[in-house]
Amino acid sequence: MGAYILKRLLLVIPTLLGIMIVNFALIQFVPGGPIETIIARMEGGGDVFEGISGGQADVEISESASDSEYAGARGLPADYIAELEAQFGFDKPPFERFLNMMWDYMRFDFGESYFRSISVVDLVLEKMPVSITLGLWATLLSYLISIPLGIKKAVRDGSRFDTWTSGAIIVGYAIPGFLFAILLIVLFAGGSYFRIFPLRGLTSSNFEDLTMIGKVLDYLWHIILPVTASTISAFAVLTLLTKNSFLDEIKKQYVITAKAKGLAENRVLYGHVFRNAMLIVISGFPALFISVFFGGSLIIETLFSLDGLGRLGFEAVVARDYPVVFGTLFAFTLLGLIVGILTDITYVFIDPRIDFEGRG
Question: Is the pLDDT assigned to residue 47 strictly greater than 60?
Fold first, then answer.
């Protein structure tokens, strides 16, 4: 197993490098940039896209301004544009900028946001509580509900319970998370009917004045709706995966033999079937958690006024805040690759019969 892990760790380097090269190359062909954003704000454009798309005003610019490579650089002195380029490093060729960026990232120096005067690491840590809340609770709830429900559906396969729950699960899976979030807001957050839960934030304005128990209850009160909206799709997939895994194992010969020996159904189910059936479900926990944790829904965060990593990523891309874009891409991609290795180790831990080295 040690040789397999070492090989996978060595593969992380070219994989990560390839992902960064592709994304960096794509950025070079995307119109606009941080300098465009600054110019658009200074000229009162209000939006970087206005400076990129142009308009009637662009036709009326002077000849000196039209020579500029920046669509929004109207009336700004050329030396000021040059200072901006030097400040952001755009006075260097792309290849040199990429090498400098990767050298910094290999030392885990992710730089500072262009527009927020805060390091990328501090910015991510600032948004982390929202992502931890949505990712951790959504993953735990998915497993705590889906596994028992999936087992019961497998045991009672074909019954009315199985049919009705399957219908409800399919409907839940078909409803997009953001649409389900809107439904929850309309019903329970003062939209049109009841005002039971708060609409925004993770805590109340008087959170610091509450007792410890009051803080816990206030926190839980705020997260019920966004966590429920984030859980719905993962819950559906995991339930059906658990059911199908158990059905496959229940039909195998060793289960029939165990029942023929007179073993109780619960002992057969949880003593023999459970470990084999749950292999694919439990081993996928790290990957599921990371996907929910770092793939937070921008729309759900926006609907519930939660400032998490989803909104951070979107705002960074729109503003062309490259240190945030590439810094988070590097860190999260590296973490995702490491989680893939941990998933394989989890397979072996749950079932020692699996041998990745032998398979290779």
Answer: no
